[in-house]
Amino acid sequence: MFDQKPAQIIIAHRGASGYLPEHTLAAKAMAHALGAHYLEQDVVLTADDRCIVLHDIYLDGVTDVKKKFPRRAREDGRYYAIDFTLEEVRTLSVHERTDPRTGRPVYPGRFPINASRFFVPTLEEEIELIQGLNKSTGREAGIYVEIKRPAWHERQGKDPTRAVLAILHRYGYRRRDDRAFIQCFDPATLRRLREEMGCELPLIQLIDEEGGEEAPRVDYAYLRTPEGLAEIAAYAEGIGPYLGQILTGVTADGQPRITTLVADAHAAGLLVHPYTFRADELPPGVPDFDTLLRWFLHHIHVDGLFTDHPDRAVRVLRRLP
Hints:
Layout: E1 9-12, H1 25-33, E2 38-45, E3 51-53, H2 65-68, H3 86-89, H4 123-137, E4 142-147, H5 150-155, H6 160-170, E5 180-184, H7 187-196, E6 203-207, H8 220-223, H9 226-232, E7 238-241, E8 247-250, E9 256-258, H10 261-267, E10 271-272, H11 289-299, E11 304-307, H12 310-319
Helix pairs in contact: 1-4, 11-12
């Protein structure tokens, strides 16, 4: 656990994804310019074992893979990144997230579908961009890497955990103070990193709802209890819960109704970095985005948060008393 309370941080969720297509280098450059303290990287593997930055194990939600490779879907109709080489992924154009079933944008008010040209970056390319911007601007932004679906990858004969850690080490992210977090929904992966692989970087246990596809066998309800949080504290520095696990509603007089999760996690010595704060997807009853941010940063006292709109979160944070 951390020895002292660090400053609150704003984490750019998939980059400045409220303004540009998620996980593109453009979205990460914009997030850096907007003042985010950390930029998030979701990592999956290609057929030739390259780490690419992509939120899903599927390509069809954010690229034109159906058009470029119409016969490469699996039986479930999805196009898996692990079935394509990096060279093939390089041919794809990235667009704003769509529903694969309808082709319609998930967030209609965001960047226009099929406008401009974006591509899927490798983890190395993204780190080099961030480190380059850190040097040229004089402002240090960290990285916040998620290992996506490690157990699923392992069943496909791949080891994303080892591949990710090797890249982080190669680029100088080794120790606790190197401005890098590793997050995962799978407790076994985080335990492996800490206990078997000797990882010294701070680890964050992501908290899903029960039965979620990321790690369907994990008992997240238990992990949210004081006993479960104490177990997490043995191998990780913090938790990343869904914001709805903290804010459950708004009272009749307009006050937030909150659980004890943040207080319980802090009592266990854990950081709390909830996800995901979106100006265009407010929880029911919340009057506006700035109010939501103030509740979490000032009243609930989370240690950081993931947002698609990092500029607005940075502005609210700077104005807090």
